[in-house]
Specification:
alpha+beta; two-stranded antiparallel sheet; single chain; about 15% helix; 2 domains; two-stranded antiparallel ribbon
């Protein structure tokens, strides 16, 4: 297996992985909330209660300030600058292996995705029938029309197939006209395997691989489509959990979506200039920070197979000329500085020194790698 620097990289002077690649996650976490009431409790594991949780006798007040993570100050000195970096990363297309897929690609229109071509996923999460439906073209790259909706068509849209006779359903149950388990979702990257990430290059060097889910036409890959509809990002700060199944946890561990559930998640801290120590971290009210660590390694969304977070961080810190002038300045300022004094003065993250001030690098560490055997879904 290829050796990869983690923690404080030689190719990223005096800037730790936590202070660079997870900058987007911490930036969102800086204004995170945990204000959703009880319906989410039944989804996956119930998150631990926090002081900000609403109760029946103490509902959340209207327009109440959103509480940030209680210990954010342990990692960040300048919240405003951190938010600028998070915004730059959200819009940056070089977060995707193909150099054109950004977080915003699927969250541009009211926080969601209004594209209409190649947006069909063929029921990949179903136990049976994972083929493209003939009702929707029977193949990838289909152009959706208004007539395609709804996917489940009834003779009377106001009545279920088991409806009783009523004023609303005078003829009783509807007749099922057609149905499909295909899903309208978001096209993402092509099926590829990573060869290497080249610092400063917009596009990763990859090898095209046959798409395992049939996203190809005449042997030529088209963009993969995620198996679940893209949720809006509007008001996600109020969600206690993220993704449709709630698996992105409220507590951010600095590494992945699993929060406190993952006992192996750790980052590297530099208590002294020449020492790196493995530590576990925990930021509350930070479910979006947990979420942000997922899509950049997701082969159904943004990544070639086999990519890891440090490779993305190295690319960002090269500040390629393909970026917009504002993003290039923000990322370059965040990552490159010849001296500690200069870094302390201009680093937009303004991370506290143990997270960026080390002069050592390390092999190994916690390396979450995108995998074709364990694809992630929204």
């Amino acid at each position: 297996m290829r050796r990869q620097k983690v923690g404080v990289f030689r190719s990223i002077p005096r800037v730790s992985y936590l202070a660079t690649m997870t900058g987007a996650a911490l930036a969102v976490a800086a204004t995170m909330a945990a204000e959703n009431p009880f319906p989410l409790d039944s989804i996956t594991s119930r998150p631990p209660a926090t002081a900000s949780d609403p109760t029946g006798s103490s509902p959340p007040p209207l327009l109440a300030p959103v509480p940030p993570p209680e210990n954010l100050g342990n990692f960040v000195q300048d919240d405003a600058a951190l938010l600028k970096l998070g915004k730059a990363l959200f819009w940056d297309m070089q977060l995707g292996s193909d150099g054109v897929t950004a977080c915003a690609s699927c969250h541009f229109h009211a926080g969601a995705d209004n594209r209409t071509k190649n947006q069909i996923s063929p029921g990949l999460l179903a136990a049976t029938d994972t083929d493209f439906s003939a009702l929707l073209g029977g193949a990838p790259n289909y152009q959706l029309t208004a007539a395609d909706f709804p996917f489940r068509k009834l003779s009377n849209p106001n009545c279920r197939v088991d409806a009783a006779v009523s004023e609303q359903c005078p003829d009783g149950p509807s007749t099922l006209i057609s149905d499909t388990n295909d899903v309208t979702s978001s096209q993402a990257v092509f099926s590829t395997e990573l060869v290497r990430t080249i610092a400063g290059e917009a596009v990763d060097e990859v090898i095209s691989t046959p798409d395992p889910n049939g996203f190809e036409i005449d042997g030529i890959n088209v963009r993969h489509v995620e198996p679940r509809n893209t949720p809006t990002i509007i008001n996600v700060i109020f969600n206690k959990l993220q993704f449709w199944d709630g698996r992105a946890k409220e507590t951010f561990n600095g590494v992945n979506i699993q929060g406190d559930i993952d006992p192996t998640a750790f980052v590297l801290r530099a208590p002294t200039g020449n020492t790196l120590t493995q530590v576990q971290i925990s930021l509350d009210n930070s479910s979006v920070a947990s979420l942000v660590t997922g899509p950049p390694l997701n082969i159904s969304e943004m990544s070639a197979g086999g990519r890891i977070h440090p490779e993305i961080g190295t690319n960002f810190c090269a500040a390629s000329s393909d970026r917009s002038r504002s993003n290039r300045f923000i990322l370059k300022t965040a990552c490159w500085a010849p001296t500690v004094a200069f870094l302390a003065r201009v680093l937009p993250l303004r991370a506290t020194k143990p997270w960026w001030g080390g002069r050592s690098s390390a092999n190994g560490g916690n390396r979450q790698r995108s995998s074709r055997s364990t694809p992630m879904v929204p």
